[in-house]
Amino acid sequence: MPAFICQACGTQFAPSEQPPPACPVCDDERQYVPHDTGQRWTTLEDLGREHHNRVAPEHDLTAVGTEPRFAIGQRALVVPWGTRCLLWDCVTLVDDATAAAVGALQAIAISHPHYYSGMVEWAHRFGCPVYLHADDARWIMRPDPAVELWHGERKELGDGLTLVRLGGHFAGGTVLHWAGGAGGRGALLSGDIVQVVPDRTHVAFMYSYPNLIPLPVATVGRMAAALEPYAFEDLYGAWWDSVIAGGAKDVVRRSALRYARAIEG
Prior knowledge:
This protein is α+β, with helices and mostly antiparallel strands. About 20% of the residues lie in helices and about 25% in strands. The protein has a single domain (about 5-265), classed as Ribonuclease Z/Hydroxyacylglutathione hydrolase-like (Metallo-beta-lactamase, Chain A, 4-Layer Sandwich), CATH 3.60.15. It contains 7 helices and 17 strands. Strand 10 (about 155-160) and strand 11 form a beta hairpin.
């Protein structure tokens, strides 16, 4: 049986004879079902006929993104982890060419449900676990033993990698702190839990980006406070070229203050 994939968000569902009746990820107010096409489905086999993955350098890391753009259009990042590598966030498509270009992965960690995408296919391909925060377990559309839920405010992975729960966009919204990034000054990989915007002097925080639903000021303040213990010079967002190279921690600080001023007037 095929494992159907939602074309709007890229989430792969558990194998079934027929497509699911709906995509809960897209029915949620943080995402959307396209008004012009409605709910549409594909499979990994069909996706691979018309798309391929681009694997290329992205600042100090290697990035993986699907072309032509598919679903939300995020790219994943391959992060050094001692003598190993970890995939941060995920894309739906994985094939032989991608696996050969990426090399060995020891684990996958994902910021929030919009990027769960093809995580089980990736886990099976590389024989590795997927780390997700337990607060977002309800959004797992393809349960699998490879998925490992973690609890609490942080998970130390060792060798300078730490998962930090910020919440905000989703209850389990997670960022990855890479202590060895930026030449040892630290880097933060944020998906869009902390969103890199065109003006690289600031970042954004939202409950829903496409539907423009803001977060409470107190939530954003708590998110910024949770990052204070971590040194980071660079910040990697969710899309190609969404990197703040230098001064990223100050950018996050002043963005949280600006957010409060804007919301509170």
